[in-house]
Amino acid sequence: RELEPSPEIDDLLAAVQPSTARELATQFFGLFGGTVRVPPYEGSYELDPIRQGRQMADVAAFYRAFGAEPNGPAGERPDHAGCELEFLAFLELRRMAAAEGDEDVELLDEISASFLSDHAGRWLPTFFAEVTEAATRAPFYRALAALGARAIDGELMRRALEPAPL
Fold first, then answer.
1. Could you read off the pLDDT of 124-137 as tens digits, one per residue?
2. How far apart are CA 154 and CA 160, in angstroms?
3. Cα–Cα distance for residue pair 34/95, rounded to 1 Å
4. What is the DSSP string of 57-74?
């Protein structure tokens, strides 16, 4: 309700309201479980296996620098889409708090830009496009992918970043 109205948010709300938790779980498994149609991991978009490991270690190092861990209820890998998006949100909350306190806002902006350039901004646009394409029978996830794509594209444009896509 606090966000600006947008077609992506309207689509997301329209898709989730008639859905049951069971339907969403079935759709989630069809997209991201079993034989994965859309891998939700940054490393899956990197062809070089050595670089895959380096990417995951670098993502984990960003988290550790801020005392963050990807050990939530799902216990996902550090390079999971949800973990990377949550970290970006965490950095934004820190930046907002820093603007009112004595923490270095410019440093937090640089770290966010670096994480977008080196990680989230390189693969999440492709991930969201693949979810949109694969989710023809999963309107909630299709709408969620459209909203995610808009958010990442908006951040990249706002910061004038053009990361090399994976």
1. 999 999 999 999 99
2. 10
3. 38
4. HHHHHHHHHTT--S-STT
